[in-house]
Amino acid sequence: MKGLKEVTDETFEQDVLGSATPVVVDFWAPWCGPCRAVHPVLEQLAEEHQGQVEFAKLNVDENPSAASRYDVFSIPSVILFEGGEARETLVGARPRSHYERAFAQWLGSAASG
Which residue of 53, 58, 73, 94 has the lowest C-beta tally within 10 Å? Predict the structure, then answer.
């Protein structure tokens, strides 16, 4: 299935913190313009790095506790979780290259191979 997996306050623990693979979570809201700009970039990365890293999205309006737990005050915020811990956080809409650099250690060299 194409697109980012939806996670909620209820599923966050299992789907993100309990995941065997690293998970990039897009903290977003429907009314957020910059969030809409980031979304296709993350979908492309999700498609290209399937199996290495999972990509998910969390609506902060509907799921305030996960957002506040990780100090998400500004959206879009994209956080990479590994082993139950937040490892890398990017705030604001960024170009694709910025996400690739920030997450390079997890995405590996699949793009160049």
Answer: 73
